[in-house]
Protein backbone atom coordinates (compact mmCIF):
# COMPACT_ATOMS: atom_id res chain seq x y z
CA UNK A 1 0.00 0.00 0.00
CA UNK A 2 2.73 2.42 1.07
CA UNK A 3 4.83 1.40 -1.93
CA UNK A 4 1.94 1.93 -4.34
CA UNK A 5 1.43 5.41 -2.95
CA UNK A 6 5.07 6.40 -3.49
CA UNK A 7 5.04 5.00 -7.01
CA UNK A 8 1.86 6.90 -7.80
CA UNK A 9 3.30 10.20 -6.54
CA UNK A 10 6.49 9.72 -8.56
CA UNK A 11 4.61 8.66 -11.69
CA UNK A 12 2.30 11.67 -11.62
CA UNK A 13 5.04 14.21 -10.92
CA UNK A 14 7.75 12.91 -13.25
CA UNK A 15 6.48 14.08 -16.68
CA UNK A 16 5.77 17.63 -15.52
CA UNK A 17 9.09 17.87 -13.69
CA UNK A 18 11.05 16.51 -16.65
CA UNK A 19 9.56 19.00 -19.11
CA UNK A 20 9.91 21.83 -16.62
CA UNK A 21 13.48 20.89 -15.76
CA UNK A 22 14.75 20.80 -19.32
CA UNK A 23 13.07 23.92 -20.70
CA UNK A 24 12.65 26.16 -17.65
CA UNK A 25 14.95 25.27 -14.75
CA UNK A 26 18.06 24.45 -16.74
CA UNK A 27 18.01 27.63 -18.86
CA UNK A 28 17.44 29.74 -15.73
CA UNK A 29 20.34 28.00 -13.99
CA UNK A 30 22.48 28.75 -17.04
CA UNK A 31 21.34 32.36 -16.78
CA UNK A 32 22.67 32.50 -13.23
CA UNK A 33 26.01 31.03 -14.35
CA UNK A 34 26.24 33.59 -17.14
CA UNK A 35 25.71 36.42 -14.65
CA UNK A 36 29.25 35.79 -13.37
CA UNK A 37 30.78 36.11 -16.84
CA UNK A 38 31.41 38.78 -19.43
CA UNK A 39 29.56 36.77 -22.11
CA UNK A 40 28.52 38.87 -25.09
CA UNK A 41 25.77 36.60 -26.42
CA UNK A 42 24.97 33.76 -28.79
CA UNK A 43 28.47 32.96 -30.04
CA UNK A 44 31.55 34.20 -28.29
CA UNK A 45 33.72 33.21 -25.36
CA UNK A 46 32.63 33.58 -21.79
CA UNK A 47 35.20 34.59 -19.20
CA UNK A 48 34.42 34.32 -15.49
CA UNK A 49 34.69 37.74 -13.89
CA UNK A 50 33.57 36.83 -10.39
CA UNK A 51 31.41 39.43 -8.73
CA UNK A 52 32.45 42.29 -11.04
CA UNK A 53 28.97 42.48 -12.62
CA UNK A 54 27.33 42.58 -9.22
CA UNK A 55 29.65 45.35 -8.06
CA UNK A 56 28.77 47.34 -11.18
CA UNK A 57 25.07 46.81 -10.46
CA UNK A 58 25.34 48.55 -7.10
CA UNK A 59 26.81 51.65 -8.77
CA UNK A 60 24.51 51.62 -11.84
CA UNK A 61 22.20 54.64 -11.50
CA UNK A 62 20.15 53.67 -14.56
CA UNK A 63 19.34 50.34 -12.95
CA UNK A 64 18.18 51.99 -9.72
CA UNK A 65 16.06 54.49 -11.62
CA UNK A 66 14.42 51.64 -13.58
CA UNK A 67 13.83 49.70 -10.39
CA UNK A 68 12.17 52.79 -8.92
CA UNK A 69 9.72 52.84 -11.83
CA UNK A 70 8.94 49.15 -11.25
CA UNK A 71 8.30 50.00 -7.59
CA UNK A 72 5.74 52.64 -8.61
CA UNK A 73 4.00 50.09 -10.83
CA UNK A 74 4.08 47.55 -8.00
CA UNK A 75 2.52 50.01 -5.56
CA UNK A 76 -0.32 50.96 -7.90
CA UNK A 77 -1.14 48.14 -10.33
CA UNK A 78 -2.25 45.33 -7.95
CA UNK A 79 -4.41 47.41 -5.57
CA UNK A 80 -6.13 49.44 -8.29
CA UNK A 81 -6.76 46.41 -10.53
CA UNK A 82 -7.96 44.22 -7.67
CA UNK A 83 -10.13 47.03 -6.31
CA UNK A 84 -11.95 47.48 -9.61
CA UNK A 85 -12.18 43.71 -10.20
CA UNK A 86 -13.54 42.94 -6.72
CA UNK A 87 -16.15 45.69 -7.11
CA UNK A 88 -17.24 44.45 -10.54
CA UNK A 89 -17.24 40.77 -9.55
CA UNK A 90 -19.20 41.44 -6.36
CA UNK A 91 -21.76 43.54 -8.27
CA UNK A 92 -22.11 40.76 -10.85
CA UNK A 93 -22.39 37.96 -8.31
CA UNK A 94 -24.72 39.35 -5.62
CA UNK A 95 -26.34 42.61 -6.77
CA UNK A 96 -29.34 40.80 -8.29
CA UNK A 97 -31.43 37.76 -7.55
CA UNK A 98 -35.17 37.05 -7.53
CA UNK A 99 -37.46 38.36 -4.79
CA UNK A 100 -34.79 39.97 -2.64
CA UNK A 101 -32.60 36.88 -2.41
CA UNK A 102 -28.91 37.16 -3.24
CA UNK A 103 -27.98 36.28 -6.77
CA UNK A 104 -26.24 37.32 -9.96
CA UNK A 105 -27.31 40.60 -11.48
CA UNK A 106 -29.48 40.46 -14.62
CA UNK A 107 -27.25 40.11 -17.70
CA UNK A 108 -24.35 38.75 -15.64
CA UNK A 109 -23.28 36.51 -18.53
CA UNK A 110 -23.18 39.44 -20.93
CA UNK A 111 -21.10 41.61 -18.59
CA UNK A 112 -18.73 38.74 -18.12
CA UNK A 113 -18.32 38.20 -21.84
CA UNK A 114 -17.61 41.90 -22.42
CA UNK A 115 -15.28 42.37 -19.44
CA UNK A 116 -12.95 39.66 -20.66
CA UNK A 117 -12.44 41.32 -24.05
CA UNK A 118 -9.31 43.31 -23.08
CA UNK A 119 -7.77 40.06 -21.86
CA UNK A 120 -8.73 38.20 -25.04
CA UNK A 121 -7.21 40.79 -27.35
CA UNK A 122 -3.68 39.81 -28.37
CA UNK A 123 -1.52 41.89 -26.02
CA UNK A 124 0.75 43.20 -28.74
CA UNK A 125 -2.25 44.39 -30.71
CA UNK A 126 -4.13 46.00 -27.85
CA UNK A 127 -0.99 47.96 -27.09
CA UNK A 128 -0.74 49.12 -30.70
CA UNK A 129 -4.40 50.19 -30.49
CA UNK A 130 -3.82 52.15 -27.29
CA UNK A 131 -0.87 53.87 -28.83
CA UNK A 132 -3.30 55.12 -31.46
CA UNK A 133 -5.70 56.29 -28.77
CA UNK A 134 -3.01 58.19 -26.87
CA UNK A 135 -1.18 59.74 -29.84
CA UNK A 136 -1.17 63.56 -29.52
CA UNK A 137 -2.41 64.87 -32.85
CA UNK A 138 -4.75 62.27 -34.28
CA UNK A 139 -5.29 60.33 -31.06
CA UNK A 140 -8.78 59.43 -29.94
CA UNK A 141 -8.36 60.58 -26.36
CA UNK A 142 -7.31 64.14 -27.21
CA UNK A 143 -10.03 64.26 -29.86
CA UNK A 144 -12.57 63.25 -27.25
CA UNK A 145 -11.32 65.86 -24.78
CA UNK A 146 -11.57 68.61 -27.42
CA UNK A 147 -15.10 67.61 -28.33
CA UNK A 148 -16.02 67.75 -24.67
CA UNK A 149 -14.58 71.26 -24.44
CA UNK A 150 -11.66 70.06 -22.36
CA UNK A 151 -8.98 70.73 -24.97
CA UNK A 152 -6.77 72.19 -22.26
CA UNK A 153 -6.44 68.73 -20.74
CA UNK A 154 -4.92 67.29 -23.91
CA UNK A 155 -1.44 65.84 -23.55
CA UNK A 156 1.12 63.95 -25.57
CA UNK A 157 0.26 61.20 -23.15
CA UNK A 158 3.11 58.83 -23.97
CA UNK A 159 5.55 61.59 -24.91
CA UNK A 160 5.70 63.66 -21.71
CA UNK A 161 7.68 62.48 -18.69
CA UNK A 162 4.85 63.59 -16.38
CA UNK A 163 2.15 61.45 -18.01
CA UNK A 164 3.91 58.55 -19.79
CA UNK A 165 4.24 56.32 -16.75
CA UNK A 166 0.61 56.80 -15.73
CA UNK A 167 -0.62 56.24 -19.27
CA UNK A 168 1.24 52.93 -19.45
CA UNK A 169 -0.17 52.00 -16.05
CA UNK A 170 -3.73 52.87 -17.08
CA UNK A 171 -3.48 50.69 -20.19
CA UNK A 172 -2.20 47.82 -18.07
CA UNK A 173 -4.97 48.16 -15.49
CA UNK A 174 -7.47 48.22 -18.32
CA UNK A 175 -5.99 45.00 -19.68
CA UNK A 176 -5.75 43.10 -16.38
CA UNK A 177 -9.10 43.88 -14.73
CA UNK A 178 -10.87 41.28 -16.89
CA UNK A 179 -8.40 38.60 -15.86
CA UNK A 180 -8.78 39.33 -12.14
CA UNK A 181 -12.53 39.65 -12.51
CA UNK A 182 -12.91 36.22 -14.13
CA UNK A 183 -10.90 34.44 -11.44
CA UNK A 184 -12.70 36.27 -8.63
CA UNK A 185 -16.11 35.56 -10.13
CA UNK A 186 -15.28 31.85 -10.43
CA UNK A 187 -14.11 31.83 -6.80
CA UNK A 188 -17.23 33.69 -5.60
CA UNK A 189 -19.33 31.18 -7.54
CA UNK A 190 -17.69 28.27 -5.74
CA UNK A 191 -18.81 29.56 -2.33
CA UNK A 192 -21.76 27.37 -1.31
CA UNK A 193 -25.14 29.08 -1.64
CA UNK A 194 -26.12 27.95 1.89
CA UNK A 195 -23.42 30.21 3.39
CA UNK A 196 -24.87 33.24 1.62
CA UNK A 197 -28.44 32.31 2.47
CA UNK A 198 -27.57 31.78 6.11
CA UNK A 199 -25.85 35.18 6.26
CA UNK A 200 -28.83 36.83 4.65
CA UNK A 201 -31.25 35.15 7.08
CA UNK A 202 -29.11 36.57 9.87
CA UNK A 203 -29.80 40.01 8.42
CA UNK A 204 -26.55 40.71 6.58
CA UNK A 205 -26.85 43.16 3.68
CA UNK A 206 -25.14 42.61 0.35
CA UNK A 207 -22.10 44.71 1.20
CA UNK A 208 -21.72 42.80 4.44
CA UNK A 209 -22.04 39.45 2.63
CA UNK A 210 -19.23 40.44 0.25
CA UNK A 211 -16.99 41.71 3.04
CA UNK A 212 -17.62 39.04 5.64
CA UNK A 213 -18.38 35.92 3.58
CA UNK A 214 -17.25 36.11 -0.05
CA UNK A 215 -13.86 37.80 0.42
CA UNK A 216 -12.70 35.76 3.44
CA UNK A 217 -13.75 32.51 1.78
CA UNK A 218 -11.91 33.34 -1.44
CA UNK A 219 -8.83 34.90 0.12
CA UNK A 220 -6.56 32.37 -1.62
CA UNK A 221 -7.75 33.46 -5.04
CA UNK A 222 -7.58 37.17 -4.18
CA UNK A 223 -4.04 36.70 -2.93
CA UNK A 224 -2.99 34.63 -5.94
CA UNK A 225 -4.33 37.28 -8.33
CA UNK A 226 -2.59 40.00 -6.31
CA UNK A 227 0.73 38.17 -6.45
CA UNK A 228 0.31 37.58 -10.17
CA UNK A 229 -0.33 41.29 -10.75
CA UNK A 230 2.65 42.19 -8.58
CA UNK A 231 4.89 40.00 -10.70
CA UNK A 232 3.51 41.67 -13.79
CA UNK A 233 4.36 45.06 -12.28
CA UNK A 234 7.91 43.87 -11.72
CA UNK A 235 8.13 42.78 -15.37
CA UNK A 236 6.16 45.21 -17.59
CA UNK A 237 8.40 44.33 -20.54
CA UNK A 238 5.94 44.05 -23.43
CA UNK A 239 3.78 47.03 -22.37
CA UNK A 240 6.68 49.42 -21.88
CA UNK A 241 8.59 48.21 -24.94
CA UNK A 242 5.63 48.71 -27.28
CA UNK A 243 3.95 51.80 -25.79
CA UNK A 244 7.16 53.73 -25.13
CA UNK A 245 10.08 52.42 -27.18
CA UNK A 246 13.50 53.72 -26.07
CA UNK A 247 12.45 53.84 -22.42
CA UNK A 248 9.98 56.68 -22.80
CA UNK A 249 10.53 60.43 -22.60
CA UNK A 250 13.69 61.15 -20.55
CA UNK A 251 13.81 57.49 -19.53
CA UNK A 252 10.66 58.02 -17.45
CA UNK A 253 9.16 54.60 -18.21
CA UNK A 254 12.37 52.55 -18.35
CA UNK A 255 11.87 49.41 -16.27
CA UNK A 256 14.39 46.75 -15.29
CA UNK A 257 13.25 44.33 -18.01
CA UNK A 258 13.60 46.85 -20.84
CA UNK A 259 17.01 47.92 -19.50
CA UNK A 260 18.01 44.23 -19.45
CA UNK A 261 16.90 43.80 -23.02
CA UNK A 262 18.82 46.88 -24.14
CA UNK A 263 21.97 45.59 -22.43
CA UNK A 264 21.65 42.10 -23.89
CA UNK A 265 20.62 42.81 -27.45
CA UNK A 266 21.78 46.36 -28.17
CA UNK A 267 24.87 46.68 -26.00
CA UNK A 268 25.91 43.01 -26.41
CA UNK A 269 26.42 42.62 -22.66
CA UNK A 270 24.57 39.41 -21.93
CA UNK A 271 26.58 38.64 -18.83
CA UNK A 272 25.70 41.92 -17.11
CA UNK A 273 22.12 41.69 -18.35
CA UNK A 274 21.86 38.25 -16.70
CA UNK A 275 23.19 39.78 -13.47
CA UNK A 276 20.31 42.25 -13.49
CA UNK A 277 17.98 39.33 -14.24
CA UNK A 278 19.24 37.52 -11.15
CA UNK A 279 18.72 40.63 -9.04
CA UNK A 280 15.20 41.08 -10.41
CA UNK A 281 14.44 37.41 -9.73
CA UNK A 282 15.57 37.72 -6.12
CA UNK A 283 13.43 40.83 -5.66
CA UNK A 284 10.37 39.20 -7.26
CA UNK A 285 10.75 36.08 -5.12
CA UNK A 286 11.08 38.22 -2.01
CA UNK A 287 7.91 40.09 -2.96
CA UNK A 288 5.96 36.83 -3.46
CA UNK A 289 7.21 35.30 -0.21
CA UNK A 290 6.49 38.43 1.84
CA UNK A 291 3.00 38.68 0.35
CA UNK A 292 2.24 35.06 1.20
CA UNK A 293 3.63 35.45 4.73
CA UNK A 294 1.72 38.63 5.47
CA UNK A 295 -1.61 37.40 4.11
CA UNK A 296 -1.41 33.84 5.38
CA UNK A 297 -4.74 32.46 6.57
CA UNK A 298 -6.07 29.09 7.58
CA UNK A 299 -7.14 26.99 4.63
CA UNK A 300 -10.90 26.99 4.17
CA UNK A 301 -12.24 23.65 3.01
CA UNK A 302 -15.85 23.44 1.98
CA UNK B 1 -40.82 42.81 2.06
CA UNK B 2 -41.58 46.44 2.87
CA UNK B 3 -41.79 49.06 0.14
CA UNK B 4 -38.76 51.17 1.23
CA UNK B 5 -36.56 48.04 1.18
CA UNK B 6 -37.73 47.24 -2.31
CA UNK B 7 -37.09 50.79 -3.48
CA UNK B 8 -33.62 50.70 -2.03
CA UNK B 9 -32.98 47.39 -3.75
CA UNK B 10 -34.11 48.73 -7.13
CA UNK B 11 -31.94 51.83 -6.72
CA UNK B 12 -29.01 49.64 -5.72
CA UNK B 13 -29.48 47.49 -8.80
CA UNK B 14 -29.60 50.62 -10.97
CA UNK B 15 -26.29 51.81 -9.53
CA UNK B 16 -24.80 48.34 -10.03
CA UNK B 17 -25.84 48.31 -13.68
CA UNK B 18 -24.46 51.82 -14.16
CA UNK B 19 -21.03 50.78 -12.87
CA UNK B 20 -21.05 47.51 -14.81
CA UNK B 21 -22.19 49.15 -18.05
CA UNK B 22 -19.55 51.87 -17.66
CA UNK B 23 -16.75 49.35 -17.47
CA UNK B 24 -18.33 47.29 -20.26
CA UNK B 25 -18.15 50.32 -22.56
CA UNK B 26 -14.49 50.83 -21.69
CA UNK B 27 -13.70 47.15 -22.21
CA UNK B 28 -15.55 46.83 -25.50
CA UNK B 29 -14.43 50.11 -27.03
CA UNK B 30 -11.10 49.02 -28.60
CA UNK B 31 -12.74 45.94 -30.08
CA UNK B 32 -15.54 48.00 -31.56
CA UNK B 33 -13.01 50.54 -32.77
CA UNK B 34 -10.86 47.93 -34.51
CA UNK B 35 -13.92 46.41 -36.19
CA UNK B 36 -14.86 49.87 -37.52
CA UNK B 37 -11.23 50.55 -38.43
CA UNK B 38 -10.99 47.28 -40.34
CA UNK B 39 -13.67 48.53 -42.74
CA UNK B 40 -12.10 51.94 -43.41
CA UNK B 41 -9.40 53.09 -45.78
CA UNK B 42 -6.04 54.17 -44.37
CA UNK B 43 -6.87 57.79 -45.24
CA UNK B 44 -10.13 57.58 -43.32
CA UNK B 45 -8.39 56.08 -40.29
CA UNK B 46 -6.03 59.03 -40.05
CA UNK B 47 -8.31 61.86 -41.18
CA UNK B 48 -11.38 61.09 -39.07
CA UNK B 49 -10.75 58.53 -36.33
CA UNK B 50 -14.29 58.94 -34.97
CA UNK B 51 -16.30 58.50 -38.14
CA UNK B 52 -17.84 55.39 -39.59
CA UNK B 53 -16.45 54.20 -42.95
CA UNK B 54 -17.97 55.88 -46.02
CA UNK B 55 -18.30 52.44 -47.61
CA UNK B 56 -17.17 49.22 -45.93
CA UNK B 57 -13.93 48.04 -47.47
CA UNK B 58 -14.03 44.29 -47.30
CA UNK B 59 -10.88 44.09 -49.40
CA UNK B 60 -8.94 44.95 -46.22
CA UNK B 61 -9.79 41.43 -45.07
CA UNK B 62 -8.78 39.87 -48.35
CA UNK B 63 -5.46 41.70 -48.17
CA UNK B 64 -4.91 40.66 -44.56
CA UNK B 65 -5.75 37.04 -45.31
CA UNK B 66 -3.67 36.74 -48.49
CA UNK B 67 -0.80 39.18 -48.32
CA UNK B 68 -0.30 39.26 -44.58
CA UNK B 69 -0.75 35.47 -44.48
CA UNK B 70 -3.26 35.48 -41.62
CA UNK B 71 -4.69 32.18 -42.90
CA UNK B 72 -1.34 30.41 -42.62
CA UNK B 73 -0.51 31.95 -39.24
CA UNK B 74 -3.92 30.85 -38.07
CA UNK B 75 -3.30 27.20 -38.95
CA UNK B 76 0.14 27.28 -37.29
CA UNK B 77 -1.37 28.80 -34.15
CA UNK B 78 -4.08 26.13 -33.91
CA UNK B 79 -1.49 23.33 -34.03
CA UNK B 80 0.90 24.95 -31.55
CA UNK B 81 -1.73 26.21 -29.09
CA UNK B 82 -3.72 22.96 -29.22
CA UNK B 83 -0.67 20.81 -28.56
CA UNK B 84 0.74 23.00 -25.78
CA UNK B 85 -2.64 23.39 -24.08
CA UNK B 86 -3.32 19.64 -23.99
CA UNK B 87 0.15 18.91 -22.69
CA UNK B 88 0.24 21.58 -20.01
CA UNK B 89 -3.26 20.75 -18.72
CA UNK B 90 -2.64 17.00 -18.55
CA UNK B 91 0.76 17.20 -16.87
CA UNK B 92 -0.25 20.18 -14.73
CA UNK B 93 -3.39 18.52 -13.38
CA UNK B 94 -1.52 15.32 -12.48
CA UNK B 95 1.25 17.22 -10.69
CA UNK B 96 -1.15 19.60 -8.93
CA UNK B 97 -3.29 16.71 -7.67
CA UNK B 98 -0.31 14.96 -6.11
CA UNK B 99 0.96 18.22 -4.60
CA UNK B 100 -2.40 19.18 -3.16
CA UNK B 101 -3.47 15.86 -1.67
CA UNK B 102 -0.38 13.86 -0.75
CA UNK B 103 2.15 14.70 1.90
CA UNK B 104 5.63 13.48 1.04
CA UNK B 105 9.10 14.66 1.87
CA UNK B 106 9.74 16.89 -1.15
CA UNK B 107 6.21 18.27 -1.47
CA UNK B 108 7.06 21.79 -0.32
CA UNK B 109 10.24 21.89 -2.38
CA UNK B 110 8.47 20.84 -5.59
CA UNK B 111 5.73 23.42 -5.01
CA UNK B 112 8.30 26.14 -4.49
CA UNK B 113 10.19 25.07 -7.59
CA UNK B 114 7.04 25.38 -9.71
CA UNK B 115 6.09 28.68 -8.06
CA UNK B 116 9.54 30.01 -8.84
CA UNK B 117 8.86 29.54 -12.55
CA UNK B 118 6.31 32.35 -12.33
CA UNK B 119 8.69 34.85 -10.80
CA UNK B 120 11.75 34.48 -13.01
CA UNK B 121 11.88 37.09 -15.76
CA UNK B 122 11.86 35.13 -19.01
CA UNK B 123 14.68 37.30 -20.28
CA UNK B 124 17.09 35.64 -17.89
CA UNK B 125 16.46 32.28 -19.59
CA UNK B 126 15.93 33.26 -23.18
CA UNK B 127 19.43 32.85 -24.62
CA UNK B 128 20.27 29.59 -22.76
CA UNK B 129 16.81 28.31 -23.77
CA UNK B 130 17.63 29.03 -27.38
CA UNK B 131 20.82 26.98 -26.99
CA UNK B 132 18.96 24.04 -25.37
CA UNK B 133 16.23 23.92 -28.01
CA UNK B 134 18.85 24.14 -30.73
CA UNK B 135 20.94 21.33 -29.18
CA UNK B 136 17.86 19.08 -29.11
CA UNK B 137 17.35 19.77 -32.81
CA UNK B 138 13.97 21.37 -32.09
CA UNK B 139 14.71 24.95 -33.13
CA UNK B 140 12.12 26.30 -35.57
CA UNK B 141 9.96 23.18 -35.24
CA UNK B 142 6.39 23.13 -34.04
CA UNK B 143 7.16 20.22 -31.70
CA UNK B 144 9.85 22.30 -30.03
CA UNK B 145 7.56 25.29 -29.63
CA UNK B 146 4.80 23.07 -28.19
CA UNK B 147 7.14 21.53 -25.60
CA UNK B 148 8.57 24.90 -24.54
CA UNK B 149 5.20 26.66 -24.33
CA UNK B 150 3.75 23.76 -22.32
CA UNK B 151 6.75 23.89 -19.96
CA UNK B 152 6.28 27.64 -19.39
CA UNK B 153 2.53 27.13 -18.91
CA UNK B 154 3.10 24.63 -16.09
CA UNK B 155 3.84 27.03 -13.18
CA UNK B 156 0.54 28.90 -13.43
CA UNK B 157 -1.44 25.72 -14.19
CA UNK B 158 0.07 23.80 -11.28
CA UNK B 159 -0.24 26.78 -8.93
CA UNK B 160 -3.89 27.41 -9.76
CA UNK B 161 -4.94 23.74 -9.74
CA UNK B 162 -3.07 22.95 -6.51
CA UNK B 163 -5.17 25.60 -4.80
CA UNK B 164 -8.28 24.24 -6.43
CA UNK B 165 -7.65 20.56 -5.59
CA UNK B 166 -6.93 21.44 -1.99
CA UNK B 167 -10.37 23.04 -1.55
CA UNK B 168 -12.18 19.92 -2.81
CA UNK B 169 -13.50 17.67 -0.03
CA UNK B 170 -11.06 14.84 0.60
CA UNK B 171 -13.67 12.41 1.88
CA UNK B 172 -14.87 11.51 -1.63
CA UNK B 173 -11.43 10.38 -2.79
CA UNK B 174 -10.97 8.43 0.44
CA UNK B 175 -14.28 6.68 -0.12
CA UNK B 176 -13.20 5.78 -3.65
CA UNK B 177 -9.92 4.36 -2.30
CA UNK B 178 -11.80 2.27 0.28
CA UNK B 179 -13.91 0.94 -2.58
CA UNK B 180 -10.69 -0.36 -4.13
CA UNK B 181 -10.28 2.29 -6.79
CA UNK B 182 -6.50 2.78 -6.54
CA UNK B 183 -4.87 6.23 -6.52
CA UNK B 184 -4.95 6.68 -10.28
CA UNK B 185 -8.54 5.50 -10.42
CA UNK B 186 -9.55 7.91 -7.67
CA UNK B 187 -7.89 10.73 -9.62
CA UNK B 188 -9.35 10.02 -13.06
CA UNK B 189 -12.82 8.82 -11.98
CA UNK B 190 -13.54 11.02 -8.98
CA UNK B 191 -11.26 14.00 -8.46
CA UNK B 192 -10.73 15.10 -12.06
CA UNK B 193 -14.48 15.31 -12.79
CA UNK B 194 -14.96 17.24 -9.55
CA UNK B 195 -12.17 19.63 -10.57
CA UNK B 196 -13.76 20.43 -13.93
CA UNK B 197 -14.71 24.03 -13.02
CA UNK B 198 -11.11 24.72 -12.02
CA UNK B 199 -9.74 22.94 -15.08
CA UNK B 200 -12.05 24.91 -17.34
CA UNK B 201 -10.98 28.24 -15.80
CA UNK B 202 -7.29 27.48 -16.03
CA UNK B 203 -7.76 26.15 -19.56
CA UNK B 204 -9.30 29.45 -20.65
CA UNK B 205 -6.39 31.42 -19.17
CA UNK B 206 -3.77 29.06 -20.59
CA UNK B 207 -5.47 29.18 -23.97
CA UNK B 208 -5.53 32.97 -24.04
CA UNK B 209 -1.94 33.16 -22.84
CA UNK B 210 -0.81 30.76 -25.53
CA UNK B 211 -2.89 32.39 -28.25
CA UNK B 212 -1.36 35.78 -27.38
CA UNK B 213 2.12 34.47 -26.61
CA UNK B 214 4.78 36.58 -28.27
CA UNK B 215 8.25 36.49 -26.77
CA UNK B 216 8.93 32.72 -26.88
CA UNK B 217 7.70 32.24 -30.46
CA UNK B 218 9.68 35.33 -31.45
CA UNK B 219 12.93 33.72 -30.31
CA UNK B 220 12.31 30.02 -31.01
CA UNK B 221 10.26 30.18 -34.19
CA UNK B 222 12.17 32.33 -36.66
CA UNK B 223 10.76 30.90 -39.90
CA UNK B 224 8.03 33.27 -41.27
CA UNK B 225 6.31 30.22 -42.81
CA UNK B 226 5.71 28.91 -39.29
CA UNK B 227 4.84 32.20 -37.59
CA UNK B 228 2.00 32.13 -35.09
CA UNK B 229 -0.62 34.90 -35.19
CA UNK B 230 0.94 37.22 -32.59
CA UNK B 231 4.22 37.13 -34.49
CA UNK B 232 2.51 37.64 -37.81
CA UNK B 233 0.45 40.57 -36.55
CA UNK B 234 3.41 42.15 -34.81
CA UNK B 235 5.48 41.94 -37.97
CA UNK B 236 2.58 43.54 -39.82
CA UNK B 237 2.44 46.33 -37.23
CA UNK B 238 6.07 46.84 -36.31
CA UNK B 239 8.41 45.55 -39.00
CA UNK B 240 6.68 47.38 -41.82
CA UNK B 241 7.27 50.61 -39.95
CA UNK B 242 6.26 53.65 -41.97
CA UNK B 243 4.66 51.57 -44.70
CA UNK B 244 2.29 49.91 -42.22
CA UNK B 245 -1.02 48.99 -43.80
CA UNK B 246 -3.25 50.04 -40.90
CA UNK B 247 -6.57 48.98 -42.39
CA UNK B 248 -5.21 45.49 -43.08
CA UNK B 249 -3.75 45.52 -39.58
CA UNK B 250 -7.19 46.19 -38.12
CA UNK B 251 -8.67 43.46 -40.34
CA UNK B 252 -5.98 41.01 -39.23
CA UNK B 253 -6.68 41.92 -35.63
CA UNK B 254 -10.41 41.25 -36.05
CA UNK B 255 -9.61 37.90 -37.71
CA UNK B 256 -7.37 37.02 -34.77
CA UNK B 257 -9.95 38.01 -32.17
CA UNK B 258 -12.98 36.41 -33.78
CA UNK B 259 -12.12 32.73 -33.12
CA UNK B 260 -11.04 33.52 -29.56
CA UNK B 261 -14.34 35.25 -28.90
CA UNK B 262 -16.23 32.32 -30.45
CA UNK B 263 -14.32 29.79 -28.33
CA UNK B 264 -14.91 31.94 -25.29
CA UNK B 265 -18.65 32.26 -25.90
CA UNK B 266 -18.93 28.48 -26.41
CA UNK B 267 -16.92 27.69 -23.27
CA UNK B 268 -18.53 30.50 -21.38
CA UNK B 269 -21.98 28.84 -21.22
CA UNK B 270 -20.42 25.79 -19.61
CA UNK B 271 -18.30 27.96 -17.33
CA UNK B 272 -21.21 30.13 -16.26
CA UNK B 273 -23.27 27.07 -15.42
CA UNK B 274 -20.44 25.66 -13.36
CA UNK B 275 -19.25 28.74 -11.53
CA UNK B 276 -22.35 30.88 -11.06
CA UNK B 277 -24.53 27.80 -10.53
CA UNK B 278 -23.75 27.78 -6.83
CA UNK B 279 -25.33 31.21 -6.43
CA UNK B 280 -28.62 30.29 -8.03
UniProtKB/TrEMBL annotation, chain A:
Residue ranges occupied by any ABC transmembrane type-1 domain in the UniProt entry: 78-291
CC per GO annotation: plasma membrane
Main location as per UniProt: membrane
Record localization: Cell membrane
Annotated Pfam families: BPD_transp_1
Annotated GO biological process: transmembrane transport
Keywords of the record: Cell membrane, Membrane, Transmembrane, Transmembrane helix, Transport
Top-rank taxon, per record: Bacteria
Membrane-spanning ranges: 7-29, 71-97, 109-133, 166-191, 221-243, 270-292
Membrane-topology descriptor: Multi-pass membrane protein
Record family assignment: Belongs to the binding-protein-dependent transport system permease family.
Protein name: Sugar ABC transporter permease
Organism: Xylanimonas allomyrinae
Amino acid sequence: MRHARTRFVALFLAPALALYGVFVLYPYAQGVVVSFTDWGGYGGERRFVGLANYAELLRDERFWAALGHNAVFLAVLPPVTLGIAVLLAALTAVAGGPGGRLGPVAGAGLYRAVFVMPHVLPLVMSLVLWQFVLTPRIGLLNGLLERAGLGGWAHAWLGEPGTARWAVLAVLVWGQVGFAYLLLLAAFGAVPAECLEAAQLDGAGRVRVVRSILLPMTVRTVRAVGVFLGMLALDMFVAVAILTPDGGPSGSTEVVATYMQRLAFSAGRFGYSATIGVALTVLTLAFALVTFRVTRRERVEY
Amino acid sequence: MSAPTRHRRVAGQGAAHLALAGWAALAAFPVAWSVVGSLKSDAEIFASPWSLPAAPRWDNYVRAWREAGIGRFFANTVVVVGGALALTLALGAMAAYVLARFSFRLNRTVRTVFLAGMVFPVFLAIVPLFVVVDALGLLGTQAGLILVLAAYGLPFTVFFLTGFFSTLPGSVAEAALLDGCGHAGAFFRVMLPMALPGLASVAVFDFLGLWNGYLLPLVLNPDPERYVLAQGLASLAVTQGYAADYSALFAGLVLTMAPVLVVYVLLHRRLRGLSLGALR
